[in-house]
Amino acid sequence: xxxxxxxLMMAFPWLTLTxxxxxxxxxxxxxxxxxxxxxxxxxxxxxxxxGVTEDSPMRLRMEKFIKxxxxxxxxxxxxxxxxKFRKDEWNRPxxxxxxxxxxxxxxxxxxxxxxxxxxxxxxxxxxxxKMHADHKTLDPSVESLDFxxxxxxxxxxxxxxxxxxxxxxxxYFETANPDGTSQAWWFGGGSDxxxxxxxxxxxIHFHRxxxxxxxxxxxxxxxxFKKWCDKYFYNKHRGECRGIGGIFFDDLDESERDRENTxxxxxxxxxxxxxxxxxxxxxxxxxPFTEKEKEWQQIRRGKxxxxxxxxxxxxxxxxxxxxSRVESILMSLPLTASWKYMHEPEPKSREQRLVDVLKDPxxxx
Length: 365
Fold this sequence. Notes:
365 residues; alpha+beta; seven-stranded antiparallel β-sheet; two-stranded antiparallel ribbon; 9 strands; disordered N terminus; Coprogen_oxidase_aer; EC 1.3.3.3; coproporphyrinogen oxidase; coproporphyrinogen oxidase activity; porphyrin biosynthesis
């Protein structure tokens, strides 16, 4: 069984996948029959003929949305930093592809990555049976199902230790019937903040912005997804959270609400990123700092690396899959980090207060 793209593994780590085999050459008669085309071919034809509209399949609308948001976010981050992102576009032989934008050694960001991935493939029966436990609309008796997956992922590591690292990921997954119509679907994602120095006003602003996006759709979302975030981004071996959280959720499907309303929720969450983070980075990027404070940032970066390499499902899945592209999987890691043996912050210091909050997450709003 050949591995899927490692970019899919990062966004959808719980999948066991097979690569779709290239379609055999078609006869002239077959070429005009829509039912012989792959899901990727059908979608490509839809985009050529009609573009992407409100009547298009959700998978095409999600792809269009995250690509638009990627452009907006990259443009705004370039304004903050003053340097340009490197943009790499890639295509998959059997449909899909992506755009990876990376800024390294910038004026503000030590390393920043904003990536979109779009993947078409086929789920084998064991994967379908495994997913059926959480998604009852999947038929566990079929031998395979075409699937579509799309997501936007981002990690920003600022140079200034007073400015926080931020992570974001929003994604959509769908299985399709033979005629290309949707069978099962779900959304997932979230955004979280990881400071080296804790400014309460920053934490409150970040969480309040996310809460407002959640509350406009369901007032139970923010407390539920905030708790989920604290639980997932947790360094078990350190007994502390990776950062001060945000929101995180997975498998939002028809059991929660209809697809249109869920998509609207995802759109508002993703659009809330710039308002949640830009005021913070603008306020902190030029603050003075000492060598000792920079050293603390490097130590906290080490904890960030530990989570990504030890506990993050996407990283583990990718690194253990033959043929995966390691550089893409590890793009989320900072350029620099450090580990000091038996290092402990001074009692009652700003550094110690951060650790106290990481060990006992606060309700910021």
